[in-house]
Amino acid sequence: MFRNKDSTGTIGKWAVELAPFEINFTARTAIKSQVIADFIAEWTPSAIWSPETPSEDKSFQAWHPDLAQYLAEVRKAELAFKGISIRSILRGENHQADALTKAAARGQELPAGAFYEEIHTSSATKLTAVEVLCVDEDWRSPIMARLLSEGANLDGPNYARLKRRIHNYHIIGGSLYKSGVCAPLLRCIPASEGQVLLRNIHEGLCGSHLALRLLAGKTLRQGLYWPTIMADAKALVRTCQGCQWMGRRSHQLSTPLQVIAPVWPLAQWGMNLIGPFPHAKGNLKFAVVAVEYFSKLVKAEPLTAITSKNVQKFFRQNIICRFGVPKQLTIDNGTQFDAEPFREFCEGLGIELCFVAVRHPQSNGAVERANSNILVGLNRRIVGLAKGLWVDELPKILWSIWTIQSRSTGFTLFRLLFGDEAMTPTELKGGSLRTILPEATNEREVLLNLSEETCLRAVVNLTKYQAQTKTWFDPKK
Fold first, then answer.
1. Which positions ≥6 away from 34 have C-beta within 8 Å?
2. Cα 195 from chain centre
3. Strands annotated E in 196-285
4. Residue 74 and residue 462: Cα distance in Å, rounded?
5. Quick one: which of 73, 82, 248, 300 has the most CB atoms within 10 Å?
């Protein structure tokens, strides 16, 4: 600037005045903005708010609505103090705040004396109390009111619709019943009670995590009804953790399906082994499974070792001693079955042994399906439990399978073998019609006399189901 010959005005006057002096100019190096900010923060005097300080500054405003609420709360709290001191602390010196932030982010234990509180909503927002009246209307109330009104003139489209619905409903002993197909009369229960019963049937003492239609059908066959039974069953199955984790996958066969023609109950059996399972009490880690082809009766027993002697003992005690000597037994080519002692045992009783093909052991499809049902049920029931508890859960799975209506026959195995449905704990708690009325005993005697007709109907249903299954599974040309 001083050496510039074109300097004029004020710059030229300064150049003339400073010419006699020796002045050396050195360019200043760049200064980071953070250093300047620290310099300003350190040398700026802090403001002290107190009643004795007349120069307090309250001119700042909060433009955001949420911050404005916090500011208003601070103004209210300010009146309770004699004075408020605000001091700026550098980020590098704020060690306490950094330690608290890191401890909260990492889930570590907070320092002693630190105040901790979880705030899920804004602390400055004042919630106004609102009274809400929750009314859980029972769906049975309008139907019972209409039935008890004895033809009273009720207006409105809802009552016109209700008038057409009540033809299937009856009041017996102060309770509402609905004429059904699964049972002569279904006891109507509240939807909330029905949801509890559904969960009991699905995963309770006699539950094996059934699918949607099986779950709803089993509930109806126990003499209970409410209008949203299918929707409630669907919601339960979709939200069940075990059902979602252990879902099935369907696989189409590459060869034509070979079906076994139905003969008569307890005439044909199939037997197989499953395992190893996690070690349970008593060193149990295997299971032997037997399936009756007509009624779909499944028998299973845990084993410590899969030997021919154990298989023969299971077959004698659980099949022959309880249901008689079968005509035919289908087994695979395992050494436990294809052993000389077991062959001699079956030939001595006149049992025909049928060994499945070595190249395709899945040909014993009924037993393979029973194994799958047991494994899926066990996996779903022991979710979150110790793996060794599968032995305790196995009888519950079997009971659930026994009380399910077979899709192939259209009946439960109790109806086919014993002439009547089994009484379950859920039915006793729900109070179905046959648990209340003594006349239900006579109906059971009639069903026992009609057991042969029931088996003949099951033969027709089973033949039709096998034809449909073969059409579905066979490869499409």
1. none
2. 14
3. 224-225, 268-274
4. 79
5. 300
Q: Is 238 exposed, middle or buried (0-12, 13-18, 19+ CB in 10 A)?
A: exposed
Separation CA 364–CA 332 (nearest Å): 8
- The token pair that represents 239 in the structure block: 């939200």
Question: What is the β-pairing status of strands 286-292 and 268-274?
Answer: antiparallel
**In sequence order, what DSSP letters do the residues of 82-147 get, joined into one string?**
S-EE-----GGG-HHHHHHHHHHHHTPPPPTT-------S-TTPPPPP---------THHHHHHHH
pTM of the model: 0.50
List pLDDT tens digits, range 269-299: 989 898 888 888 888 999 999 999 888 889 9
**DSSP state at residue 406:** P
Instruction: Decide if 459 contacts 213 (C-beta within 8 A).
Output: no
Helices vs. strands in the chain: H and E counts, helices first: 19, 11
Q: Is the pLDDT of residue 450 over 90?
A: no
427 with 223: CB under 8 angstroms? yes
The residue whose two tokens read 């008593």 is 282
Q: What are the residues facing 270 on neighbouring strands? A: 291, 330
Q: Rounded to a whole number, what is the largest CA-CA distance in the chain?
A: 137
Tokens of 129: 């109390």
CB atoms within 10 A of CB 359: 6
Q: What is the mean pLDDT of the chain?
A: 78
The pLDDT value recorded for residue 449 is 73
Q: What is the pLDDT of residue 302?
A: 93
Q: Do residues 408 and 214 make contact, with C-beta atoms less than 8 angstroms apart?
A: no
Write out pLDDT tens, residues 184-204: 788 899 998 989 989 888 888
Beta pairing, strands 328-331 & 268-274: parallel
The residue ranking higher by pLDDT, 244 or 319, is: 319
| pLDDT at site 132 | 44
Tens-digit pLDDT profile for residues 349-402 = 999 998 876 555 445 567 777 888 888 888 888 887 888 889 998 998 898 888
β-sheet bridge partners, residue 273: 288
- What is the spatial distance between Cα 275 and Cα 147, in angstroms, rounded to a whole number? 57
Interacting residues of 294 by C-beta distance below 8 A, sequence separation 6+: 262, 263, 264, 265, 266, 267, 268, 409, 416, 455, 458, 462
- Over residues 114-140, the mean pLDDT reads 62
